[in-house]
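Exercise 7b. Backbone tokens:
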């Protein structure tokens, strides 16, 4: 606008000079036209500039052009050098007001130099450019003086007003800029094509290393790829005059996504919208908290579901394991009675195998509902992997290659080794199923430290040192929908008969019950990796496991009191023990047991009691009897760790434990072990936990090539 005003005023001045009959040479007219053209071009270019730096360059160029052309014009008029001096002053004011200081100094320097050259040329009549020799005002110094005086006064007045105005504007601008810089919200303005024309400090911080390029870039480039369409839609609406509020994902300084709660609005210049203003508040933290809450809620629902199934499974398991023990017991009796070549032996084996499968199913139900009886030991996960590797190779077939990468200085963890085997097998079988045409299964162990930030974003995780076990395959992978459900009991994508959907829920249950965490990362077509973290334990490795007594040493002649409320199991237990030479007395409840003990004429060497019974529980009975019969050994039986009673039973001083369902041999072995352990048996550590090595017989059955953990009978004595 100011430039246009200058053009107009120069036009008027030239017209006046013409009217006054002042000689107006053709060259001067040409120069004036050239200067006007430059000024107009410059004006148009400034309107189209994308950045401030480009605008500065144009302005610098235009100011230089102005000064050159005007210098030429004064030379043409000739003589009135001080008129030129005033006009230069005026131009310099413009230059200072509209250019950054450094550029303005360049323009000023150039203008002053140009002007002095012109004066020197006039004074010494030095040979110069052709136009220096053209006629001057022809000696009409009076008229020149008048014009110069009037023009000079007007120009100086204008310059003073303008510089005051510029000062006011500059101060206001600085105040605004200061405000914008301290606002924590991101503020960005764009032109109508979405090119950023200004951005505050918060926006620069968000852009990080790209901060220098923010101004002049399309705003869409700052948004995350999949969000650009949303951003564009809101930008278009704002350009048409609407005010929009929306949440959008942008790329943060380190490339991680950040969330902004944005408002965008058109910016008016006069009556027209000349650009769009975006104001955005960083709500990433709120978003993450929201997400963590959602995940926690989902996990809570999942946990409640598990709890419900667990309740059901626990209730079932109690009776079911008794029944399986009865079936297994009678199978054992039949096997003993029949000759080795009897055709019915095959039938017995089938019954036995079916019973084991049934037991394994209950075990899985208990495992994922975290109600199985865990017998944790201090273990090195490397040992578990190495010991199982051979079996895994057989299990998954030759077309899948197994690679192991085991950390050399792996820390120790506390977990049930047999359950760890089960975890590894279930994951390996899943990996095998995901790689029907072969592939690579990688097992890796590593010491890791989970940081506070990781713990915050992964509900349930505690920060600290962990051992990580990764099981990676390059199979089919999973889509996000499948991933969201894999730990649910009975969720399977496999055809009926191929998968029960209990594998991963069992793994989940075992890991969680052992104080660990499991996470899965998977991409369809690329494969999956399951990462399990167990907290590191400070305890040291358990000593070597005692060898189980050989079968011929299982016989005994002591008296055993069998207490179980199951009418079908009691006779089986009685018969098993009698077969091994023991005298047996029995009771159907805790109260009965007390009177049996009182009435029994001879000593009772061992109390073999179910943990969970109506009325008095096994541990309560044991405590009661211990007062009057401190020498009586105790062996508990149970099929699941439903509640505190079982855990209490497992912590009972000097008590052994046999898990239901059991085979006759297992029962006989545990009874013998409990009796032989004598006074050295079971010491209670200060922590109240049993501290002697767990001994176990773990039988893992592999049927039809698929892993199915069969009867795993373990004990601690
Ligand atoms: N490594 C893997 N790659 C691809 N998909 C997998 C992988 N592991 C598990 N899944 C998916 O998770 C589902 C649930 O697995 P889970 O082990 O619980 O049950 P399942 O394997 O189907 O049956 P089961 O283990 O009882 O025989 C699978 O059906 C499969 O869709
Ligand atoms: Mg499975």
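Sequence design result:
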């Amino acid at each position: 606008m100011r430039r246009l005003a200058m053009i107009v005023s120069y036009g008027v001045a030239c017209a006046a000079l013409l009217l006054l009959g002042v000689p107006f040479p053709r060259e001067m007219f040409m120069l004036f036209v050239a200067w006007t053209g430059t000024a107009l071009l410059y004006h148009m270019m400034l309107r189209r500039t994308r950045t401030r730096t480009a605008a500065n360059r144009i302005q610098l160029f235009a100011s230089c052009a102005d000064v050159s052309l005007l210098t030429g014009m004064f030379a043409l008029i000739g003589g009135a050098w001080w008129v030129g001096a005033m006009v230069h002053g005026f131009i310099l004011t413009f230059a200072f007001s509209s250019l950054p200081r450094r550029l303005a100094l360049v323009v000023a320097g150039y203008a002053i130099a140009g002007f002095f050259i012109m004066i020197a040329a006039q004074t010494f009549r030095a040979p110069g450019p052709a136009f220096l020799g053209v006629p001057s005002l022809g000696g009409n110094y009076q008229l020149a003086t008048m014009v110069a005086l009037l023009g000079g006064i007007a120009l100086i007045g204008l310059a003073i007003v303008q510089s005051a105005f510029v000062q006011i504007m500059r101060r206001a601008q600085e105040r605004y800029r200061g405000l914008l810089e301290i606002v924590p919200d991101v503020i960005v303005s764009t032109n109508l094509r979405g090119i950023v024309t200004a951005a505050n400090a918060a926006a620069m911080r968000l852009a990080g290393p790209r901060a220098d390029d923010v101004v002049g870039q399309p705003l869409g480039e700052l948004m995350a790829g999949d969000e650009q369409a949303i951003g564009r839609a809101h930008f278009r609406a704002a350009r048409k005059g609407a005010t929009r509020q929306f949440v959008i994902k942008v790329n943060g300084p380190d490339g991680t996504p950040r969330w902004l709660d944005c408002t965008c609005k058109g910016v008016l210049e006069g009556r027209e919208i000349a650009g769009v203003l975006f104001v955005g508040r960083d709500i990433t933290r709120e978003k993450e908290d929201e997400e963590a809450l959602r995940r926690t809620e989902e996990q809570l629902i999942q946990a409640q579901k598990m709890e419900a199934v667990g309740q059901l499974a626990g209730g079932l398991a109690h009776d079911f394991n008794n029944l399986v023990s009865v079936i297994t017991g009678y199978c054992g009796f039949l096997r003993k009675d029949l000759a080795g070549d009897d055709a019915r032996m095959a039938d017995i084996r089938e019954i036995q195998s079916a019973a084991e499968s049934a037991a394994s199913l209950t075990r899985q139900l208990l495992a994922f509902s975290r109600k199985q009886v865990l017998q944790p030991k201090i273990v090195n996960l490397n040992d578990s992997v190495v010991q199982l590797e051979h079996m895994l190779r057989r299990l998954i077939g030759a077309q899948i290659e197994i690679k192991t990468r085991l950390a050399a200085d792996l820390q120790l963890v506390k977990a049930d080794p047999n359950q760890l085997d089960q975890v590894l097998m279930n994951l390996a079988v899943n990996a095998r199923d995901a790689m029907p045409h072969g592939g690579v299964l990688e097992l890796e162990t590593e010491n890791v430290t989970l940081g506070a930030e990781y713990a915050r974003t992964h509900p349930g995780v505690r920060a600290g040192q962990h051992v990580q076990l990764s099981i990676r395959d390059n199979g089919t992978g999973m889509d996000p929908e499948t991933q969201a459900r894999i730990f649910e009991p009975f969720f399977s994508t496999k055809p009926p008969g191929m998968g029960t959907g209990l594998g991963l829920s069992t793994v989940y249950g075992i890991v969680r019950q052992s104080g660990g965490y499991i996470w899965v990362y998977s991409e369809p077509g690329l494969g999956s990796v399951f990462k399990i973290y167990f907290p590191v334990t400070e305890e040291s490795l358990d000593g070597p496991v005692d060898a189980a007594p050989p079968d011929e040493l299982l016989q005994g002649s002591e008296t055993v009191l069998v207490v179980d409320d199951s009418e079908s199991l009691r006779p089986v237990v009685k018969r098993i023990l009698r077969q091994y030479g023991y005298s047996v007395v029995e009771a159907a409840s805790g109260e009965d047991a007390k009177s049996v003990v009182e009435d029994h004429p001879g000593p009772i060497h061992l109390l073999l009691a179910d943990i969970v019974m109506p009325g008095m529980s096994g541990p309560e009975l044991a405590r009661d009897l211990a007062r009057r019969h401190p020498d009586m050994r105790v062996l508990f039986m149970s099929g699941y760790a439903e509640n505190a009673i079982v855990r209490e039973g497992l912590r009972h001083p000097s008590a052994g434990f046999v898990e239901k369902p059991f085979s006759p041999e297992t029962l006989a072995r545990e009874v013998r072990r409990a009796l032989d352990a004598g006074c050295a048996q079971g010491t209670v550590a200060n922590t109240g936990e049993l501290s002697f090595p767990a001994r176990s017989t773990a039988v893992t059955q592999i049927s039809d090539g698929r892993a199915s953990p069969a009867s795993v009978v373990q004990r601690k004595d």
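Instructor comment: The longest strand covers residues 257-269. The chain has a mean pLDDT of 77.
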